[in-house]
Give the backbone structure.
Amino acid sequence: MTQESPALYVVPTPLGNLGDMTQRAIEILRQVPWVAVEDTRHSAPLLRHYGCTARMLAAHEHNEEAAAQQVIARLAEGESVALVSDAGTPAVSDPGARLVARVRTAGFRVVPLPGPCAAVTALSASGLAEAHFLFYGFLPARARQREDALRGLTALPYALVFYEAPHRILDTVAALAEVFGSERTLVIARELSKLFETIHSCPLAEAHDWLMADANRQRGEFVLLVSGAPEAADDGEGERVLGLLLDEGLPVRQAAKLAHSITGAGKNAMYELALTIRKNV
């Protein structure tokens, strides 16, 4: 980092435990003359804790365009800027994405630092076995819009990751059970890395009662993880379509993928069956 090469540094900050701040992040915050922060009242104690003396400028969801112009002006003067949110990685369900886009469009470097992210932290301890996950973030606050958003996700075979605030947790968990059904697994991760960290796994049918059993379970910041949609049972249509695709000369993997997409039959089952069919030809 030099005056001749100014950059915007995207700096993750701890979810709760101050020990989770990386050494590189601390060094950047100590060196830059400016830090763009989501909330000056929240970030001032954090910066003091790490010995950072940079000046702050506000960059939240209501002033992000104006903040971007302030950051670009600082960069144009040869001064590097760090961007932080209240917790975790900026621009991931937090302000910052538009600011980063404007800085890049203006031709300045954007340097991302790895660090805390609530979604990945919760996923690593969830025990969900899906090979892929979809990060959704915050669902719409209104019931009808929330239900519509969830219905668009029901058939996806990926683990689904949501953020939720305490005042909406009961409504959101009820909506998840209503739309996804009672059998899918829900992992409730709250207050990650903090004193009252809780990670609880249960069928969706049991989640509401678990939250209601103790008012403390409804407090804090939440990550909700839902297991992916189960593979549809094969009624024989998958095998028929798979056979037709293989007869057309498609490779095993491609034929299995297409048979799964067309009929909903299990992808792994279609692949194994395709191998058997091709072997016996």
Remarks:
- The two ends are 63 Å apart (CA to CA).
- The longest strand covers residues 133-138.
